[in-house]
Amino acid sequence: MKWRLIFLAGLVGIAYLWTLNFAFLSDDIYGIVNNPEIVKFSWVWQNPTVVLNRLSYFILANIFGVVSWPFRLVNIGVHLLTVIGVMVLAEKLINKTVGIVAAVLVAVHPLMIESVTWISGSGYSWYGALLLWSLIFYIKAKDSWWKYGISVLLFLAALEFSEKAAVLPGILLVYRFVIDRKRGKWRDLIPYIALSGLWLVMNIRGVGARLNYLQTEYNSSVETQSAFKVSPLVQTPVALSSYLGLIVWPDKLTLYHSEMNFTRIKFGIMAGITIIYLLATAWLLWRRKPAGFFLSWLVIGLSPTLVPLGVAWIVAERYAYFGAIGIFILIAWGLVSLSEKPKWIEAGWTITVIIICLLLVRTLVRNSDWQDQDHLWLAAERTSPTSPQNHNNLGDLYGRRGNLQLAEWHFKKAIELNPHYADAMHNLGNTYVRLGKLEEAIKMYEAALKNKPTLWQSEQQLKAVKEYLIKTGVDKGK
Questions:
Q1: What is the pLDDT of residue 49?
Q2: Which of 105, 381, 425, 464 is deepest in the core (most CB within 10 A)?
Q3: Which pLDDT value is given to residue 215?
Q4: What is the pLDDT of residue 478?
Q5: pTM of the predicted model, to two decimals?
Q6: Does residue 139 contact residue 174 with C-beta atoms inside 8 Å?
Q7: CATH of 387-472, one of 1.25.40.10, 1.10.530.10, 3.90.150.10, 3.10.20.80
């Protein structure tokens, strides 16, 4: 066990420790860097459903200050906790060899990066690790009440990091149905179901707030709401097939999975993959095969983000941090089974090592995109060409570099993709000011305020530009 732990810690270290001093990115800026409340204990209790998530930020900010490395170091430590948990779980349910191979896949797979390297994604790695260990203690508990109590407490802790942890009762129900049918009465699941129900009720009010945030932040009209809310008959095949594709080979990794326009043939393929996956899961569950348990994990883990309420992106890599674990265990099981066949021993282990090395290299390459915002937005330009958010980010990037013509083009592209994107209109107005196109700037500020009346920066800039035109005597409206 000792050497296996050292080996896994070394792999996680190789993949992630070099990212410690990377910059704060995206939501980190608003949630940590520009959040004066983060050092106040009263802030921790403002939302009782995510107390532990805020408490971790509060403690780190007060001990180390608002610097990135301690936040990221904690994320890496939590990921290692997940990796070790995968090894323990797979060893318990299958065997030691599958346990170590599955743990290695989780340690180095690029799909996990967004929840580890991105500080704002930490809630997903935290609740994933805690749910995994809650499941492990539940399996080991049986007649041990103290292990059962630890399992329930870990589940409660997971809920305090994210309401998405409420999926654990589904995992436990399938586990009892498929693997541990002789355990006895099912009443030991009551605390998990009760806590999930409580958190769901407590977070119902958050649905409206979340929708309001999306509509305010992304100026969601009928057109832009489609990025968040679509028919489940469309959303489920797109999401599940996309995640399965990213697990098999994580090629197009991006913070903005915006490329959601498919030909009928491509969507038909995605729907076919999803149907086969769901039918295979159902058949294996009906036959009560362990493979059915691991296959169902992905659907159960993703279920909060598949609900068509318009409060989540269709695809986001961080959503799959916990749900993908079952697939990783299945892949490891398949590779080990192949490698144990007499005629395939050398070939099987060679394939396994090559897959692990390729995934590690892909993780190192993808992690380099997260070193600062400029690298992240340029990487997203290659994978998310129709993301209005990323075009707005690129406009800001080129504006800071002094390339105003390219900045103007990206802001215009963002507005073309989302005609109600007030932030891009405001930024285009600022660019016009720098270019000396003051009349165009006024039009952009007015358009921004029309779409987002709370955007006080546009109101301030509009007033300043008009006053300047009056003062210089070139105001055409005099």
A1: 86
A2: 425
A3: 53
A4: 43
A5: 0.91
A6: no
A7: 1.25.40.10
What is the structure's pLDDT at 210? Answer: 53
Q: Is 152 exposed, middle or buried (0-12, 13-18, 19+ CB in 10 A)?
A: middle
Tokens of 21: 């001093």
Place of tokens 């008959």: 233
How far is residue 375 from each of residues 17, 20, 76, 243, measured CA to CA in Å? 18, 16, 21, 24
One-letter-per-residue 3-state SS of the chain? CHHHHHHHHHHHHHHHHHHCCCCCCCHHHHHHHCCHHHHCHHHHCCCHHHHHHHHHHHHHHHHHCCCHHHHHHHHHHHHHHHHHHHHHHHHHHCCHHHHHHHHHHHHHCHHHHHHHCCHHHHHHHHHHHHHHHHHHHHHHHCCCHHHHHHHHHHHHHHHCCCHHHHHHHHHHHHHHHHCCCCCCCHHHHHHHHHHHHHHHHHHHHHHHHHHHHHHHHCCCCHHHHCCCCCCHHHHHHHHHHHHHHHHHCCCCCCCCCCCCCCCHHHHHHHHHHHHHHHHHHHHHHHCCCHHHHHHHHHHHHHHHHHCCCCCCCCCCHHHHHHHCHHHHHHHHHHHHHHHCCHHHHHHHHHHHHHHHHHHHHHHHHHHHCCCCHHHHHHHHHHHCCCCHHHHHHHHHHHHHCCCHHHHHHHHHHHHHHCCCCHHHHHHHHHHHHHHCCHHHHHHHHHHHHHHCCCCHHHHHHHHHHHHHHHHHCCCCCC
For residue 285 the two structure tokens come to 């569950």
Whose tokens are 């990783």? That residue is: 328
Residues of the chain with confidence (pLDDT) below 70:
205-230, 308-311, 474-478
Which tens digit of pLDDT belongs to each residue from 11-44?
Answer: 999 999 999 999 999 999 999 999 999 999 999 9
Tokens representing 283 are 């058949």
User: Among candidates 366, 362, 337, 365, which has minimal Cα distance to 352?
Assistant: 337
> CA–CA distance from 99 to each of 1, 81, 103 (Å)?
11, 14, 6
Tokens of 198: 């409580």
Give CA–CA dist 443/291, Å, rounded.
60
Distance CA 470, CA 467 (A): 5
CA distances to 20, 77, 149, 237, 464 from 124, rounded to whole Å, are 18, 13, 23, 23, 43
Give the domain ranges of the chain.
2-34+67-368, 387-472
Q: Is 167 left (phi over 0), alpha (psi -120 to 50) or beta?
A: alpha
Q: Cβ atoms within 10 A of the Cβ of 125, count?
A: 26
